[in-house]
Amino acid sequence: MNYTQNKKISQLTDKTLIVGVDIAKNKHVARVQDFRGIEFGKPLYFKIMS
């Protein structure tokens, strides 16, 4: 899909949840926010056990 940033933003609705995950070498972080940028809960920190 070839969307511009404005087209992507216009697809957000009041039912949209945005999940972001930061993958790092040792500790990863995930967080959830709504379409307005209001965060749900605290960031979740986790690491992969090998």
Question: If you had to describe this structure to a student in words, what would you say it looks like?
Answer:
With 50 residues, the protein is mainly β. Helices cover 12% and strands 42% of the residues. It has a three-stranded antiparallel sheet with strand order 1-2-3, with no helix packed on it. Strand 2 and strand 3 form a beta hairpin. The model has no long low-confidence stretch (mean pLDDT 88).
Outline of this structure?
The protein has 50 residues and is mostly beta strands.
By secondary-structure content and strand pairing, the structural class works out as mainly beta
Amount of beta strand: 35-45%
Q: Residue-averaged pLDDT, rounded?
A: 88
Query: What is the share of helical residues?
Result: 10-25%
Poorly predicted runs of 5 or more residues? none
The count of DSSP E runs of length 2 or more, i.e. the number of strands, is: 3
Termini Cα gap: 35 Å
Helix and strand pattern: HEEE
Radius of gyration: 14 Å
Biggest sheet character:
3 strands, antiparallel
The gross shape turns out to be elongated
By oligomeric state, this entry counts as single chain
Strands ordered across the widest β-sheet: 1-2-3
What's the number of helices?
Answer: 1
